[in-house]
UniProtKB/TrEMBL annotation:
Pfam short name (any one): BD-FAE
Highest taxon of source: Bacteria
TM regions (residue ranges): 7-26
SUPFAM superfamilies: alpha/beta-Hydrolases (SSF53474)
The BD-FAE-like domain, residue ranges: 79-289
Full protein name: BD-FAE-like domain-containing protein
Molecular function per GO: hydrolase activity
Keyword set, alphabetical order: Hydrolase, Membrane, Transmembrane, Transmembrane helix
Length: 335
């Protein structure tokens, strides 16, 4: 009997040691999660007043506005920086936000729904960078726009010491067209989509990506309800394609679904089932194909949710926030 009790004691001691090792290894994430959960939960009662599609003027709290990360034909392409409110050992993880707008319009202005989420991370030591990219014209196409996003990432690597960035912990959050560009930037190779020679030698690698209702198969888009300007731009692009490449093949070339392969950065996909512009089935296809290749990918389905988070309720907003926070925390090494 004593021998059995001794064996049980040894087993329990081993279990306690193992738990202690796990807790120590993930101490940064655990502390962050407790703080972030308390902070975001405190916002739950105020979420009904949030207008999910409204842009928020965060300029009062912005540390650096319109920072030039590259110049094209004498014109600056810029980003905004919201500095971390807490110092972390090893530097500040970086979240790059890429705006939507059907590739035709939009700016680095951050939507109101995103503000409390991003501020949770700022308060815990992350830097938020909101990226502008060149908008679609007859001369500006998907290649240049993805190159802009990747050059913004390369700029972060280049300016690591100046702003105390932790370049081992860079993530992308994109909405709609911005999610499309973010997925292409995250899934494409380091030497793909290059534009600015001054940034050529810097990495464009990211740790993770969050896709908010992003187009993954461009041939499935309902161009007619996106915006007349986009439909016109695509038709103009079709007329100017070199070597008479079909518009279908052109759209296929810039569809993230065709960049899925093993060892992609962890991806969180968030999409509503009632999206009339970007079909929900495309996100489901991206999820299933990526899962089949062994990638770390998650899908949050918003029942009856439309494009740009329209028609979602207070509980869905809260669940979305918790999923968003959990995903980033558990894909960041804060120790």
């Amino acid at each position: 009997m004593k021998k059995v009790l001794k064996i049980i004691g040894i087993i329990l001691l081993g279990v306690l040691i193992a738990i202690g090792i796990v807790l120590y290894h993930f101490r940064g994430q655990i502390k962050f999660y407790i703080n972030a959960a308390q902070e975001y939960s405190a916002l739950k009662n105020n979420l009904e007043s949030v207008e999910v599609t409204k842009d928020l003027n965060m300029s009062k709290d912005m540390d650096y506005k319109d920072i030039e990360y590259k110049k094209v034909n004498g014109k600056a392409v810029t980003l905004d920086i919201y500095e971390a409110k807490k110092k972390l050992k090893g530097g500040s993880p970086v979240i790059l936000y890429v705006h939507g707008g059907s590739w035709i319009y939009g700016s680095s202005q951050i939507p109101e729904l995103m503000e409390p989420l991003l501020n949770v991370f700022r308060n815990e030591g992350y830097t938020i960078i909101s990226v502008n990219y060149r908008l679609t014209t007859n001369e500006i196409d998907f290649y240049k726009q993805v190159s802009d996003v990747k050059d913004a990432i390369r700029w972060v690597y280049k300016n690591k010491d100046k702003y105390d960035f932790n370049t081992n912990e860079i993530g992308l959050v994109g909405a709609s067209a911005g999610a499309h560009l973010s997925l292409l930037a995250a899934y494409s190779g380091n030497n793909q989509f290059k534009d600015d020679k001054a940034l050529d030698n810097y990495s464009s690698k990211v740790k993770w990506v969050v896709d908010l209702f992003g187009p993954t198969n461009l041939n499935s888009l309902n161009m007619s309800i996106a915006t007349g300007k986009l439909e016109t731009a695509v038709k103009n692009r079709e007329n100017s394609l070199r070597e008479k490449q079909s518009i279908e093949n052109y759209m296929k070339e810039y569809s993230p679904i065709n960049y899925v392969k093993p060892d992609l950065p962890p991806t969180l996909i968030i999409h509503g089932t009632n999206d009339k512009m970007v079909p929900y089935k495309d996100s489901l296809e991206l999820y299933e194909k990526s899962k089949k290749d062994g990638n770390n990918v998650e899908l949050l389905t918003l029942d009856n949710g439309g494009h740009d988070f329209s028609n979602i309720n207070k509980k869905q907003i809260f669940d979305l926030g918790i999923k968003f926070i959990n995903f980033i925390i558990f894909n960041t090494n804060l120790n």
